Amino acid sequence: MVAIIVVNWKNYDDTQDCLKSLHQTKNTDFSIIVVDNESQKKPAEKLKSNFPNITLLPQKKNLGFTGANNIGIKYGLTLSAEYIMLLNNDTIAPRNFIDPLLMTLHSNPHIAAVQPKIMFHDKPDMIWNAGGIYYPFNASTRTIGYNQTDTEKYNESRYVDWITGCCILLKSEIITEVGLLNEHFFAYYEDVDWSLRIRKLGYLLAYNPTLPIYHKIGASSKNKKKMEEGFLSPFVHYLNIRNHIFLARLHARGIHAINAHLYLLLKIISYSVYFILKRRRKKLKISWKGFLEGYSTQL
């Protein structure tokens, strides 16, 4: 059985669309667990009424991507689920998309986790994520195929350095071995950290492009209307700066650590110059807050 964890945060419309798409899947035995951050009573009751078979776990406050998913994972493990899937609530999944992912996990006992090809929802011929690359020399990351037109080269299964938390299917036994998501991250880079921890145990991470899913992108991080300092929330910049430092502190060693921290210094300087030129004072201030907390937080 697969326990599918979907985290909602004040975005019931997208969550409902996601759940509708999941209910097209018939071949796989699965259970859906919705963790509702800062749960709103009436919309939550409506969601449960529309989808009576889901398990709804309302939370009084926003626990972030990490905290909410960890609650869902723990619940899924109590169901004795063989597999745990994390799935963003702003995704649309095709019918029976889980089957090829399970086939990948069954194909090699050393494969711990797998992700599908992920396309932009509003540009269905463009790739959002086809796996991730990690560069240890400066603790930086790259998303394979991002914003590229889908071609045959993205239709080949492969092993990857890290898997996005947007859609990841793992063997439950791996989670008991590697542990839960690191809640210091709250959101962003937590999937890279989890992936690197899994790989350090000697396991493989895989990409299976057979049945792509579609991602609406940034529903919880972008404002629908352009605000004083742009569409992207200042809090996202804070998390991006801080969590990248967390990643380097946790995984970069030796000369790689020196390179990584120099790179991060250049990153905050470049952000600062941009925000100064654009007169985005809030984003400048909160980015430096993230930079300082990245080094002062005890991990």
Which features does this protein show?
10-stranded mixed β-sheet, alpha/beta, 299 residues, two-stranded antiparallel sheet
Overview of this protein structure:
With 299 residues, this protein is α/β, with parallel strands linked by helices. 41% of the residues lie in helices and 26% in strands. The protein has helices spanning 12-22, 41-50, 64-78, 98-107, 172-178, 190-200, 234-251, 255-278, 281-296; strands at residues 2-9, 30-37, 55-58, 83-88, 91-92, 111-120, 127-129, 132-135, 140-143, 158-159, 167-171, 204-215, 222-227, 230-232. Strands 1, 2, 3, 4, 5, 6, 7, 10, 11 and 12 form a ten-stranded mixed sheet that branches. It is globular. The chain starts with a strand and ends with a helix. The model has no long low-confidence stretch (mean pLDDT 95).
